[in-house]
């Protein structure tokens, strides 16, 4: 039984089955993903948007940087980055960060009806710096993270009507992504530095991020093993940065995307093209993917960046560079290409997120065909996704 199949089974049967150490050890020692055929079949020729998709899938452009969103007066932001979807009655909302510095950053939202048409667009955060990725909370807010050395996390409100709030207790460092764990009632945070850490924030009250404890993962130098957490004494990081405060902190090379599901956290590191996996039930970590460990062909995933998951258990990992692809890591530890964008080699793919039904995947090309932050394009792909 492969890793995520095992984890889904364990969650479904929690309370009815007691797992032995050997079973968890087998799950923890599974090999990193290897090249395999896509569950959706081969890529077809590029469509009118320059996107290669499997048969049965289509794409549309929902917004372009510097242009008004169709049917609204709102101008879409430059450099679209991390994003997420939120259920909104029979429709949904997609939020997207703006990775612009010097106070030009922030976050925008697109509201869709049940048919997938945009009904409104608006800002939910402005005046911040390099809002790169972030994470969705169980109470339907979006954590927008600043990717600067003195960056903060801002809690934003996708439905509008409430001003964003800076959550200083979550630490001041080069934030990238966040993922909420409702079981342990913590938020995991990645750090985009070559010697960065992986953090977790434990709020005093779950659902209220105004106060709590910031901790960083501690482990050896290997690519698998056990881990613990150490409390960061000074989350403000002044004068000593958070990643230099705890002895034994495990160093990760350029933390990027982060995703939680079923007692597991997956996060990516761009400096070494890896996807890491934390098995929270037994406090072990391992590699879910490493491009240098693909032994049965050419590694399909390079420039790893944002990551999300489907309800089926597939992981979708976007590339910053590489071949401008979104790749799939399946529950049986296979990796394949889901889509490829042609003619945009100076861009990166950001913000992959599924709508609530799981049949639409939103994402952006941050710099589009121009290679400039003003050329960003936000897409939607529709098709027979596994759910």
Automatic annotation (TrEMBL):
InterPro entries named among the record's database cross-references: PhoX, TAT_signal
Superkingdom of source: Bacteria
Keyword vocabulary terms for this entry: Signal
Signal peptide: 1-30
Record's protein name: DUF839 domain-containing protein
């Amino acid at each position: 039984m492969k890793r995520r199949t095992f984890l889904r089974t364990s969650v479904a049967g929690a309370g009815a089955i007691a797992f032995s150490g050997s079973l968890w050890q087998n799950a923890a020692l599974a090999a990193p993903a290897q090249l395999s055929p896509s569950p959706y079949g081969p890529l077809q020729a590029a469509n009118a948007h320059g996107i290669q998709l499997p048969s049965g899938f289509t794409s549309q452009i929902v917004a372009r940087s510097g242009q008004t969103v169709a049917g609204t007066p709102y101008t879409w932001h430059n450099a679209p980055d991390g994003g997420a979807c939120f259920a909104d009655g029979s429709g949904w909302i997609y939020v997207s960060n703006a990775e612009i510095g010097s106070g030009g950053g922030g976050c925008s939202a697109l509201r869709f009806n049940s048919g997938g048409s945009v009904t409104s667009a608006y800002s939910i955060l402005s005046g911040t710096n390099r809002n790169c990725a972030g994470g969705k909370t169980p109470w339907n807010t979006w954590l927008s993270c600043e990717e600067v050395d003195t960056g903060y996390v801002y809690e934003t409100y996708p439905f509008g009507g409430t001003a964003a709030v800076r959550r200083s207790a979550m630490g001041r460092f080069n934030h990238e992504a966040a993922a909420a764990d409702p079981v342990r009632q913590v938020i995991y945070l990645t750090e985009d530095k070559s010697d960065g850490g992986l953090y977790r924030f434990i709020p005093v009250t779950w659902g209220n991020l105004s106060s709590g404890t910031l901790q960083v993962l501690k482990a050896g130098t290997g690519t698998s093993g056990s881990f613990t957490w150490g409390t960061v004494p000074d989350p403000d990081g002044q004068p000593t940065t958070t990643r230099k405060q705890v002895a034994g902190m495990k160093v990760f090379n350029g933390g990027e995307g982060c995703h939680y599901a079923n007692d597991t956290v997956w996060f990516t590191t761009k400096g070494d093209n890896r996807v890491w996996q934390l098995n929270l039930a037994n406090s072990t970590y391992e590699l879910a993917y490493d491009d240098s460990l693909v032994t049965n062909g050419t590694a399909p995933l390079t420039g790893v960046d944002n990551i999300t998951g489907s309800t089926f258990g597939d992981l979708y990992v976007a590339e910053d560079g590489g071949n401008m692809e979104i790749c799939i890591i399946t529950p049986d530890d296979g990796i394949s290409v889901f889509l490829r964008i042609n003619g945009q080699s100076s861009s990166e793919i950001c913000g992959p997120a599924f709508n609530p039904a799981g049949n639409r995947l939103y994402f952006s090309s941050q710099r589009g065909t121009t290679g400039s932050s003003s050329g960003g394009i936000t897409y939607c792909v529709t098709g027979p996704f596994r759910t």
